Amino acid sequence: MTDMRQTPLAQSLPASVPFVGPETHERARGAPFVARLGANENIFGPSPKAVAAMADSAGEIWKYGDAESHALRQALSDLHGIAPEHIMVGEGIDGLLGYLVRLYVGVGDAVVTSLGAYPTFNYHVAGFGGILHTVPYRDDHEDIAALFAKAHEVKAKLVYLANPDNPMGSWHRGADIVAALDDLPADSLLVLDEAYVECAPDGTAAPVAIDDSRVIRMRTLSKAYGMAGARVGYAMGATDVISGFNKVRNHFGMNRCAQIGATAAILDREWLAQVQGEITVAREDIARIARSQGLTPLPSAANFVAVDCGADGAFAKAVLDELVARGIFVRMPFAAPQNRCIRISCGPKTDRDAFAAALPEALAAARAQASR
Amino acid sequence: MTDMRQTPLAQSLPASVPFVGPETHERARGAPFVARLGANENIFGPSPKAVAAMADSAGEIWKYGDAESHALRQALSDLHGIAPEHIMVGEGIDGLLGYLVRLYVGVGDAVVTSLGAYPTFNYHVAGFGGILHTVPYRDDHEDIAALFAKAHEVKAKLVYLANPDNPMGSWHRGADIVAALDDLPADSLLVLDEAYVECAPDGTAAPVAIDDSRVIRMRTLSKAYGMAGARVGYAMGATDVISGFNKVRNHFGMNRCAQIGATAAILDREWLAQVQGEITVAREDIARIARSQGLTPLPSAANFVAVDCGADGAFAKAVLDELVARGIFVRMPFAAPQNRCIRISCGPKTDRDAFAAALPEALAAARAQASR
């Protein structure tokens, strides 16, 4: 029941929970998953130095976190060779996206994204009363020219582009994105979500000039750094864009141990390199498993592989359901035609073996349903 | 510089950072504080079982937290004897207050609070374009009758009441708050912030019927439970109020280790009782130290003591600055006449001894300034 004292906008929002996590599935099925390959978590885990730093600092949790995330921003400043004023740390990219939409999108304002791209961004846009305009993927890639053309057409406040893309794993060269910025409307801000960029080939990160106010880049500790549960993300951009967060953010919102662990994780380049190698191996193995069953893995620059199940969304959904029923947690794109795929996160060999064992049965069961 | 692509509301918000944390002070002064008694943190710390649970789970931080905070809500459900549907867990009371203001307060909507009460609530109200109306404290207590009368006068969407109060430490009997609810306007929602209630005498927690939609109660792991840096708070209320959070909250916003640690902390009633005892001793000791210097400690039901410095806000500010200069981090109320006080958080004996040692010098220095 909706509380009629809420604002008209809040009353208009759906009360249903849009995001179902693996624990919710597990409680419903009454058993834990055998392999947790659905949320693009990094099962190879965080740097042992980050784990040790968090464990060692747990006793200090009585202190609020540093409102400026000073040490972490300093480490990021050194990593990227930009001044700390160009960096904002927040409660994951999800948290930062919420603040950013709030800063730029009022009721009725236009926003542009790709049809089937990151749903949490769409959730924030709807939540602040924005009007979402979508353009289709083009050959399973986000279509930069079409996104920017749509932004002109609808006078978009924000344009969302993930590179590499989730859920497809496709990517653009960073230089191509920078070159396209001249086609972005002057009143639009490009939200470039580079959550998966550490999993991508060299040249994927966009070489944006740090004082370029046309774009804000988002990074996270949740993917290659293996700290999804810590809720640490950061934004990089021009100071007039970055400083806006201070108007609305929860200044003491960061978990103190997460700040400390994230700083250690950023500094451990050796661990990151090792995980990057593991992810490459895992992508190839997932592709091999998919091909062995006659499916088509898509090229991926992320820590997951989208696998084309060779038919429509209903069939892919049947495959997914049959995998979940066998204890393999995977997810899938929600919009056609990308929803002909299922999306499998990279994990260690034991997880991939469990997937490989379940896939033939799941496919057979889905095909049996389809032929009924 | 303000980014002119922001919404009109966002452009109107101050870009200055309203909340300065102790680490920022420490970096400015080039040395750590001797005693950290300014942020109402609980220096006695969290349950060792909570610390162990967080340390043990640090290696699992690659997993997102449970979007439903199921185990923690179950523990809270058992503790309070209410169904989990009446409980929402969020990123500290600060985070929950942000969501709540967003749900209920549109641009131009009226909100009522006490003049000098919790500034983060005011920050959220301003951030969503609400109009804050204030009523004075009455004998250093929040004035419930005046708050509710003002709510009628201005047609308030939200009325904020902290019990015990921060920054004064004063309190009302919970039963008196419940009795007063009949005077609350039908269209208002009372936000009853019980952050410090575990530090208060029996009978301070308001015995609100759980299906009473007139009030939402806020609790936290940051104070008596000693986990400020974890960012765990919760709200209790009628389901139509509680379910509203699902429309706007960051569903995967909770730190996973914090969820696990908070659950352990809630279950460790023995540790809480011990800390409650320590806080009582510390309050009495802080009062004794204040009296020994001719100052007047106010009665407190919180984990801090407001100390009347016997003059105006300028004098109290001078005392505070002199304490800070001597490595004693304290804060003070920001509105008259409460700003005749400084506010000292409860800490162990070593911290109190450091405060006791610094106070005579700080007072002498402040008095020397005042006589110039």
Automatic annotation (TrEMBL), chains A, B:
Per the record, where are the segments of Polar residues compositional bias? 1-14
The alphabetized UniProt keywords are: Aminotransferase, Pyridoxal phosphate, Transferase
Q: Which SUPFAM superfamilies has this protein been placed in?
A: PLP-dependent transferases
| Leader sequence residues | none
Q: What is the lineage of its organism?
A: Bacteria, Pseudomonadati, Pseudomonadota, Alphaproteobacteria, Rhodobacterales
Pathway noted in the entry: Amino-acid biosynthesis
Cofactor(s) needed, names only, are: pyridoxal 5'-phosphate
Q: Which organism is it from?
A: Tritonibacter horizontis
Q: Which NCBIfam families match?
A: PRK08153.1
Chain spans, region Disordered = 1-21
Q: Which PANTHER family match?
A: HISTIDINOL-PHOSPHATE AMINOTRANSFERASE 2 (PTHR43643), INDUCIBLE LYSINE DECARBOXYLASE (PTHR43643:SF2)
Task: Look up keyword Transferase and say if it applies.
Answer: yes
Which EC number(s) does UniProt give?
A: 2.6.1.9
Any one Gene Ontology molecular-function term assigned to this protein's record: pyridoxal phosphate binding
The lineage's top-level taxon is Bacteria
Identify this protein by name.
Histidinol-phosphate aminotransferase 2
Task: List residues of the Aminotransferase class I/classII large domain.
Answer: 36-357
Belongs to which family? Belongs to the class-II pyridoxal-phosphate-dependent aminotransferase family. Histidinol-phosphate aminotransferase subfamily.
